[in-house]
Amino acid sequence: MSHDPQEGLRVPHRVVVVGHGMVGARLADELSRRDVDGALDVTVLGAEPYEPYNRVLLSDVVAGRTDVAAIGMPTVDDGRTRVLRGTAAVAVDRDARVVLGDDGARHPYDHLVLATGATARLPAVPGLGTDPTALPAGVHALRTLDDAREVVAATVNAPRAVVVGGGVLGVEVALGLAGRGLPTTLVHGADAPMDRQLGGEAGRVLRAALQAEGVTVRTGVRPDEVLVVGGRAVGVRLAGAVREPGETLGAGLVVLACGTTPETSLARRAGLAVERGVVVGPDLASVTDPQVFAVGDCAQPPEGSRGLVAEGWDQARRLADALVALAARPRAAHRRPDRPREHLRLPGDGAGPSMAVRLGTLLSSRAPGGPASGVDARGTDVVKVKAGPLSVVAMGRCGSGRAPVPGERTLRLADPAAGRYVEAVVADGVLVGATCVGDARVAADLTAAYTRRTPVPADPAFLLLTPVAPAAEPASSPEHMPDDATVCRCNGVTKHDIAACVADGASTQDDVARATRATTGCGSCTEAVCGLVDWLTAARAEGARRPGAALGQEAGAVHSSV
Amino acid sequence: MTAAVPVADAPAPVATHCPYCALQCGMDLTPAADQRAGRASLPVTVTPRQFPTNGGGLCQKGWTSATVLRAPDRLTTPLVRGAGGELVPASWDAALDLVAGRLSALAAEHGPETVAVFGGGGLTNEKAYTLGKFARAVLRTPNIDYNGRFCMSSAAAAGNRAFGLDRGLPFPVTDLAGADAILLLGSNVAETMPPFVQHLAGARSAGGLVVVDPRRSATARLADGGQGIHLQPVPGTDLVVLLALLHVLLAERLVDRAYLDARTSGSDDVARSVAAWWPERAETVCGVPAEELRRVARLLAAASPSRGGRGAYVLTGRGVEQSAQGTATVTAAINVALALGLVGRVGSGYGCLTGQGNGQGGREHGQKCDQLPGYRRIDDPAARAHVAAVWGVDPATLPGPGVPAVALLTSLGTPGGPRALLVHGSNVVVSAPNADRVRERLAALDLLVVCDVVPSETALLADVVLPTTQWAEEEGTMTNLEGRVIRRRRAAGPPGEARSELWILAELARRLGSDVALGTDPAAVFDELARASAGGVADYSGLSHARLDAHEAAGGEGLYWPCPATHADTSCDGGHPGTPRVFLERFATPDGRARMVAVDHAGPSDDVRPDAPVHLVTGRVLQHYQSGAQTHRVPELERLVPEPYVELHPLLGLRVGVGDGALARLTSARGVIEATARWTDAVRPDTVFMPFHWSGAGSVNRLTTDAVDPVSAMPEFKVCAVAVTPAAEPAPTAAPVETQEVPA
């Protein structure tokens, strides 16, 4: 672009991103990859001192399934993007279009993106207070890397653990702690764990699976108080369906997994519309101020949010497209259409058909939807519990709370004794929701069908089982092998060919090889050919010895067909 | 058998190699005692020969390869399209004068770049080299590329980027035998190079053969019975499998940290890039259960040398490379191999399984649009000066880089695009993607000249067809999938007036008035090639036909490039020993380290959608080779697989109403074809499979997309979206005429 006559006049478009978590960092990365011409001037403010890391894997850190060092996420390193770690945004002046950092610096913007994430929600019980950053010793909300490290450290000394909240995170953490050998109780207010994603029956199967993994599951109960002695947690007193009034679970480690609250204080102070999260339109722009966007856990988009990172990454991708387009618009004529972009395909970049933009942020492929089709979050709402060998997946229409929809068919396979529950919800010939506990293969197939909208079988009941039979072993004994079975793939030699060969007098593998070329390719069939030859020659000898006796049916067939 | 022939009269067998794939199985050709019998009998008899790649085995294609020498419609005379639109026999003088005259006129009117050249990965090194020289030095056109772009380009791009050098297998294939684990991605070797399967025996007996294929192919079945693991991802998501494997290796601290520190660069960026691909997320994209991914990662790690295993290999094939993210996928495979510390260690490694017979050599000697002989870059001034000196031309007269195959084919006959095309050893109307468009572009040319041995579908569209010699009728060299340079030897004379491309190109050069000398003696051409390659990445300068012959006669281990000239006489074995295993000391990058490059998944360019909800994947069958130009002419092979077919799962068949054995119609954004349905549970219910060896109504490349990889320009053959319906009504567009009579 050095030949661009406007180069010297160009003022980069200033984008300030507040938040350097999984979504904020991803947005910065997406912007950097797209903005090859330097049309953007990007500043990222991150309150945490760390490089971005994969928060989703904190439960794996607790479970010991991943090395802490392996959860670091990519950092933008393009020499242009400014990332200010350990710098929180304290205020936004929307009239002046400036963000004020806690270091006193002012960051002017043309567009502001809020990616402030969410904080852990604390149950309103005595002993906890309201500040997630000032919990008693031994009590942790698993939200940050520090939390995960502290939980792991606590497993060494704590005799018992209580996990409060039986959602996805609670289940993952309880399994992780139990897997470390720590007696662990999962306390959940509803009748079964993961009730948001799982219906009652599926939840009961999961409950049994958790018990089998060593987790004590208490449902229908909630913490009444976290007992703290000398600033340190010693247990949790229960309310609800308890065994005795004031029942108490002793625990040196209490992990709170009660959901999250969007972090919206900055937006609220800036006068932006905030309900549960920062209210944004389909374009992710604040309904109050079109210069301000919100993505990830802090945002409240029209289609709703499930707090899954896939949704946030998808939003980051869409917003990066939009911001780059906004910045490029005045100079669109100067863009070089043939510029190669490695691993990045944008609409209009090439002549190829259907160049859907999928920069790896999506959990799935999806049908290309034009702007007219509106926002479509399908494919990003697959919940897959990270629980090692225990497979728990739910997507789309699922969970105990959902209302029936006319036209939907729900098919179920309940096999609680085997720890299996599969449910498929079908409408208009495609899978619109599914629940699967205890069958990893079916879960993977359901997910592929759901995210890609591939049509379901004529009888959708086939969705409930793996449609691929286990590999059929070839008939092991020569007599059970069908006559037209291929014995030597390399040379297309069937059992029939070999039988004909033996009928003509062949009695060794070499004889057969000479006549048919069987065994002369990769040699894998040598054993099978030898077995056949032995059996066929034995059958022939048998027939010769007792000419009156009935030949084996196979041998008879051979003779008659030669 | 000809046992009655007296031994004294029996001609000595000629040791050569199979004409088909890159395994280049050793075979002996015994010339028939009496060749006067003509077409009634074959001029040679094939017997397998002990050679490291095939261990004395041959597949059915190899066994029957002599049949192609006397195909009933073998081209034996030049053909020129006559006034009536028919191809009619012509003399060599008339045909060559015509071609030279038209080329001169077109170049004079439109400039030298108006002539384009399309080569093939089946040509000998000598032919490939001469073709490149002819294009650059005689025609002076930048417009040359070849069908290897459809095979090797993604692996080549990724290999060059990571290692600074692209040799398919940087180790002898027999090394595989000692490994505990082999991860095989996108390759159906049990059908495409059957004798190769013997090299998998060690890993299979250790339970360590991991096959990644959306289809339970013959190769995937080799993992049955505890011999390994078959991962069956959704088409187009192999990259996600690899990203997740690397994630697990890092998460579970299974990587070879010391190796990464000592021998690679970029590992930190790559590690961060895969933090986003934890197995549960990967499962939701690729459809492989998370625990299966973990199991495979652990299996590979246990086999790797840093953890006390006997060795592990990662191998890729076209299934993952022929993708719009093919380079990224191979890069991810390389990253896994590097993370495990496999590459550049004896007994472990990464390799790509080259497809075409000379797919390796064919990509080294100047058929590629951006390359000069010796795997040199055409935009490198030093490389231009060196090659120009060997050719005796001014470096300034050498053209710059051309455009890769799909772009070249797409530009034919367009304003400003080439108006003449010379095709050598390729059948583009069957083997190129979006084949209907290719046919359209060929029709828009002013001149199409095809050199071939049989009237291929492409040859039938030509204005001039020139009959060439083939494998058993010529001398030369091939470079097999291991980078081993081997001799192809003549055992029979060509029929009729068929001539070698070396002669044809030299004659054309002469008639074009060029003063550039083109050799016609293969040994002499090789010597020139060797000089041109000297100092390049693929350095053959220490090799000659004489040395290769002597080495073989002495029972040598084989000579692998790079094999630079030494002061010793290259006609005997005093020269450079060649390089069976590269990268043992250092990589061919400037700093000697392997470069790890972060890549991410983008998904297929033509993905499933409501009006095309089924993935289409393509591949090969054992009995046929590429476009089938050779194998359709072998009755023994044709009898076994006589027509195209589409494999679909019974659940899909039931849903769309296509029964087993019924005629199915497949519709993509580019075309409509029909083929017989075969029900099988070897394909996923969301996927259909078709082999690509046919033209006409069942030609699957009329459906495939010509979207290409941004780095390698490899087209995305291996996945596109189709609708599957019963072929209830007649096909909407009749297949182009395929049955034109050809004069013998």
Automatic annotation (TrEMBL), chain A:
Residues 14-303 form the FAD/NAD(P)-binding domain. Its cofactor is siroheme; [4Fe-4S] cluster. Residues 487-531 form the BFD-like [2Fe-2S]-binding domain. Pathway: Nitrogen metabolism; nitrate reduction (assimilation). Keywords: Heme, Iron, Iron-sulfur, Metal-binding, Oxidoreductase. The keyword Magnesium does not apply. Residues 330-351 are annotated as: Disordered. Belongs to the nitrite and sulfite reductase 4Fe-4S domain family. PANTHER family: NITRITE REDUCTASE (NADH) LARGE SUBUNIT. This is FAD-dependent oxidoreductase. The lineage of its organism: Bacteria, Bacillati, Actinomycetota, Actinomycetes, Micrococcales.
From TrEMBL, chain B:
It comes from the Bacteria. Residues 11-71 form the 4Fe-4S Mo/W bis-MGD-type domain. This is Molybdopterin oxidoreductase family protein. The keyword Iron applies. Pfam families: Molybdop_Fe4S4, Molybdopterin, Molydop_binding. Keywords: 4Fe-4S, Iron, Iron-sulfur, Metal-binding. InterPro entries: Asp_de-COase-like_dom_sf, MoPterin_dinucl-bd_dom, Mopterin_OxRdtase, Mopterin_OxRdtase_4Fe-4S_dom, Prok_molybdopt-oxidoreductase.
